[in-house]
Amino acid sequence: MKIVLQLGLIPGDSTLEKVTWARDTGASGIELGAWGGIDQLRRDADICQNILPVTSICGNCDDTGAGSFDFLDPDPMKRRKSLDGSVAILKLCGELGAVGQVIPPIFGPARVPDLSPFASAIELEHGLMTAMLNELGPIAAAHNTMVLLEPLNRYEQHYLRKLSDGIAAIERAGTPPGVALLADTFHMHIEETNSPQSILDVGTIIKHVHVADNTRFEPGSGDIDFAAIINALLDTGYDGYLAYECSISGDSATEKQHALERSIAFLKATIDQES
């Protein structure tokens, strides 16, 4: 397993400075955030790829560059914009040789109405999710990349909260090619009763991992047992990336840099010890 850093949490005043620091501090790749739009993603990727590979793109954006997570919205135009944004990012992932695009399909509560007894809100969402995966999965597969579904905790998302929810969504869609799961240690710490066992239960469908401690700060700063997490991943045969998605401890830039350095050293030592 190798360590990846999200571009936004790395110290430095420019993309070049950030990626160079990441390489020199022991990272093996960069995860980009989609918040600036597809053109910004391309600019950042061009700089990154000369130093470290872009391993993944987190989030989604529409043609205005805004975040777009309307995959389960009742408005077909909003759904279409989110789908089109994802298609563009998946194609870029393919160009970059990235593992895939990290997608939480919705934030907050359900937006579709409860039409019981005809169909509940969750049943309607199941249908929208199936349509989403059946469209995006084959596109991802055609570009040798993946849709990486991310379950979030109950305070952020109602629909996918556990890894088992992600498996169920994929199976309802007929297990389309190009669709897999992302496991996030912070969200699992809230939702799973046994995070290592939940990893073992879903097995090889996990193709990417986000790491953060229980406080959502850097690994090693809280009480998550990362040795147990890494052991479970190894038992499933996982040999992919551990991507930092977290805040960094400290009040000053210098304190944050030192905290991130300590965390990377901690996680690398844990990987080496358990491997």
Give the helix tally.
9
Kindly state the percentage of residues in helix: 40-55%
CATH fold-level name: TIM Barrel
The name of the CATH superfamily reads Divalent-metal-dependent TIM barrel enzymes
Strand content: 5-15%
Low-confidence sequence ranges: none
Query: What is the mean pLDDT?
Result: 96
CATH class: Alpha Beta
Q: Going across the major beta sheet, what is the strand order?
A: 1-2-3-4-5-6-7-8
Structural class of the helix and strand makeup?
A: alpha/beta
Main β-sheet description = 8 strands, parallel, barrel
Number of strands: 8
Tally of domains: 1
Task: Describe the structure using short key phrases.
44% helix, 14% strand, globular, 275 residues, TIM Barrel, alpha/beta, 9 helices, eight-stranded parallel beta barrel
Note down, in words, how this protein is organized:
- The protein is an alpha/beta fold and 275 residues long.
- The chain has one domain (2-274): Divalent-metal-dependent TIM barrel enzymes (TIM Barrel).
- Helices cover 44% and strands 14% of the residues.
- It has nine helices and eight strands.
- It has helices spanning 15-24, 38-48, 76-96, 121-142, 163-172, 185-191, 195-202, 226-235, 253-274, and strands at 2-6, 29-33, 54-58, 100-103, 146-149, 179-184, 206-211, 241-244.
- It has an eight-stranded parallel beta barrel with strand order 1-2-3-4-5-6-7-8, surrounded by seven helices.
- Strand 1, helix 1 (15-24) and strand 2 form a beta-alpha-beta unit.
- The model has no long low-confidence stretch (mean pLDDT 96).
